[in-house]
Amino acid sequence: MNKIIRLTNHSAIEVGLTGGSDRPTIMLPIAKKSVYNQEAENLKLWGVDPELGKHFVEGLADTFQVLYFDYEGHLFQHPVENLTVDHIVKDFLLIADEMNVKSFSYYGYSWLALIGLQLAIRTNRLESLVMGGFPPYKGPYQEMLIVTHKTHTQALNNQNEAAEKSSIETENPGEIDWDNIKVSMDTRVTAQFVALYESLTAFDDRSIHHLLSLPKLAFAGENDTIVYGDNFGNVTVDIAGILKMNKAKLSDLGWDVELLTGTQMDHTKAMQPAVVLPLIKQWFARQL
Q1: How would you class 287 by CB atoms within 10 Å of its CB: exposed for 0-12, middle for 13-18, buried for 19 or more?
Q2: Is the dihedral of CA 201, 207, 210, 212 positive or negative?
Q3: pLDDT tens profile 118-156
Q4: Are the CB atoms for 92 and 27 separated by under 8 Å?
Q5: Chain center to CA of 179
Q6: Within 10 A of 113 (CB to CB), how many other CB atoms are there?
Q7: Got the DSSP string for 44-96?
Q8: At 178, is the pLDDT very low, low, confident or very high (cuts 50, 70, 90)?
Q9: What are the b/e assignments for 207-232, b being 16+ CB within 10 Å?
Q10: How many CB atoms lie within 10 A of CB 204?
């Protein structure tokens, strides 16, 4: 079943619900739409599955009911003027309500993982939580605020220049040079993520774990570390390092923690269905 839902800013998003209604439901806000032809070939160069959303949905729907949508893609098409955590949580609960889903588990990756954490502390509707590519303890919120602010500043500086291809198309996939990437994104898009991390400046993820009385898993690729150059604030976003350093603490707090091994297992590779599905499908099956 697919449905067009009006979100809190009145923009319309397509949401799907598939799998048996008698099964536990998993919310997947990471279900990107499939791309084909040259666009698909470009993504493959980066190790990105051009049918990522489809493969996640199909991979889980034989065992669970899957509530899926592409929230990030929606934000790129319909930028929100003040994208706070509260705004996103309201959107996700509205989607669940409109699809008649009372309770659900959640899987999110990167910034959509931290949204899962925010959902879990704001509502009792979550049955379990999986966070990929963003640690639930001592997360890099300040570093991401710096990176997103620098990204937005560059987009503002470049907005009057001729339209250019995005850096993901023009850089060598083998190694990104963060000193020389040119940001040519829509400034309304980049402003959203500044607002998101600004809304988290007072958030302390060390103090909320008593609110998380549900099964929970955190994972990342063992090489998920990005060292940003001067254009992005000279910060390091060390997802893998934070998760490794706090693994024992997280275990004490009731988290399952997995580090995906492999020399190429960086932020991008560790979000692909072929890698993630075997982990989360088995984990959800044990919890639900």
Answers
A1: middle
A2: positive
A3: 999 999 999 999 999 999 999 999 999 999 999 999 999
A4: yes
A5: 24
A6: 26
A7: HHTT--TTHHHHHHHHHHTTSEEEE-BHHHHHHHS--TT--HHHHHHHHHHHH
A8: low
A9: eebeebeebbbbbbbbbbbbebeebb
A10: 9
Cα(179)–Cα(134) distance, rounded to whole angstroms? Answer: 23
Q: What pLDDT, in 10s, does the model give residues 166-175?
A: 443 334 444 5
Burial group, residue 122, by CB count within 10 angstroms (0-12, 13-18, 19+): middle
Q: Collect all residues with Cβ–Cβ distance below 8 Å to 66 and sequence separation of at least 6.
A: 16, 17, 18, 19, 25, 26, 28, 57, 60
Asked if 217 and 288 count as a contact pair (C-beta separation under 8 A), the reply is no
Q: Which amino acid is at 146?
A: I
Strand partners, 6: 12
Alpha carbon distance 131, 220 (integer Å): 9
Q: Please give the structure tokens belonging to residue 242.
A: 């934070």
Domain ranges of the chain: 2-138+205-225+239-287
DSSP 157-208: HHTTSPP---HHHHS-TT---TTT------HHHHHHHHHHHHTTTT--TTS-
By the 8 A CB rule, do 13 and 19 touch? no
Structure tokens at 276: 């993630």
CA 212, 217, 222, 227 dihedral sign is: negative
For residues 28 and 280, give the distance between their C-alpha atoms in angstroms, rounded to a whole number: 12
Q: Which residue has the tokens 């669970």?
A: 64
Tally Cβ neighbours within 10 Å of residue 89.
17
Q: Kindly report the pTM of this predicted structure.
A: 0.92
Q: Which fold has domain 2-138+205-225+239-287?
A: Rossmann fold (3.40.50)
